[in-house]
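Structure (tokenized):
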């Protein structure tokens, strides 16, 4: 096992910059997730660590060794791709053992590792089968097993669960987290699925357009996003964003005024006519039946129900503001009965209201 350190890594393809100013250090044994929309550069970073891409500039260390000029086969990393890349003519046992045999590891050690890996991944009863006889989840575990058997310093995973159906993806994700807790191998995991990022990571690196937006543990990033991109990308349903204008000591949202506490006005240095994007997560919105329920730290907003999505234990409501195309996501209990066209008074927790600069997307609200 080893720490991984990137210093000002940049990668250009002709006139296109894929990643720029990538700097972070993954401590030995931690599980880090690179997350962001398609094309944000996360797979390029992973391939650069693996040695499959060459950094245009910057330094890359695995352990204390500078590896910029060291070929992939000598970096002591193991990679699992989105496609399983199993050899169809080999059995499960042969696939798991292949990397070790290529390195001419003693056959007795190879057999021991195959048995141990198969046991840890619940593959013992499948060792004599070939890939075509396995389900998608079983094939994915074999691909993981082949990488684990090598006992690498660093484990790299490039969207390994994206080809699985929803239930199998959930099950395999839980198995992967448990496996990391047992092996404690330094792991870099790439995904565009924010649920995978939140549930698996010790630390998350949020990327957009080739640059790092924020690094932190899942709860810290969720609670204190650095900008609007991070705020809306992490969370399901995503954070609501409401265009607003500051006037009359409040935020005008589609003709409705949300009060702003005096201390917040001073900290934000608000000016009349100034535009903002307000962010609030669905769990911080409740349905009010009485305007008297408003408190010092809440505000009311009247909306119209547009779409009702029953999800069993809860129901997701998408509601619209008058004279606005913006829709709010609201989570209510599964026993709440609403129909499109219903008008609701929503109570917003002002302590959980984020304020973003609409030009830069940066969060400018004071710390909660």
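Design, position by position:
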């Amino acid at each position: 096992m080893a720490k991984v350190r990137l210093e000002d890594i940049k990668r250009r393809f002709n006139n296109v910059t894929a990643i720029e100013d990538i700097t972070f250090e993954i401590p030995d044994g931690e599980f880090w997730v690179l997350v962001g929309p398609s094309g944000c550069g996360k797979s390029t970073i992973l391939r650069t660590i693996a040695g499959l891409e060459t950094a245009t500039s910057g330094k890359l260390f695995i352990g204390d060794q500078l590896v910029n000029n060291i070929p992939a086969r000598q970096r002591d990393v193991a990679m699992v791709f989105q496609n399983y890349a199993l050899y169809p003519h080999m059995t499960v046992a042969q696939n798991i053992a292949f990397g070790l045999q290529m390195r001419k590891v003693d056959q007795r050690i190879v057999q021991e590792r195959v048995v141990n890996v198969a046991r840890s991944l619940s593959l013992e009863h499948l060792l004599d089968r070939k890939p075509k006889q396995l389900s998608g989840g079983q094939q994915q575990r074999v691909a993981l097993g082949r990488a684990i058997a090598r006992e690498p310093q660093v484990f790299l995973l490039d969207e390994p669960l994206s080809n699985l159906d929803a239930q199998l993806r959930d099950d395999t994700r839980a198995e992967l987290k448990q496996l990391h807790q047992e092996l404690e191998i330094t792991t870099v995991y790439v995904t565009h699925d924010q649920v995978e990022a939140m549930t698996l990571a010790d630390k998350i690196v949020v990327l957009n357009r080739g640059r790092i937006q924020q690094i932190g543990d899942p709860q810290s990033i969720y609670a204190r996003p650095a900008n609007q991109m991070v705020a809306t990308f992490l969370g399901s349903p995503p954070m609501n964003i409401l265009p607003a204008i500051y006037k009359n000591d409040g935020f005008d949202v589609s003709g409705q005024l949300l009060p702003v506490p005096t201390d917040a006005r001073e900290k934000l240095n608000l000016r009349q006519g100034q535009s903002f994007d307000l962010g609030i997560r669905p769990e911080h919105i409740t349905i009010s039946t009485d305007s008297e329920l408003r408190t010092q730290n809440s505000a009311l907003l009247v909306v119209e129900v547009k779409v009702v999505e029953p999800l069993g234990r809860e129901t997701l409501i998408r509601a619209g503001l008058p004279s606005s195309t913006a829709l709010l996501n609201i989570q209510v209990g599964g026993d709440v009965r609403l129909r499109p066209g219903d008008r609701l008074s929503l109570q917003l927790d002002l302590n959980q209201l984020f304020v973003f600069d609409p030009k830069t997307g940066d969060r400018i609200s004071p710390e909660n």
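Reviewer-requested clarification: The CA atoms of residues 33 and 189 lie 5 Å apart. The mean pLDDT is 89.
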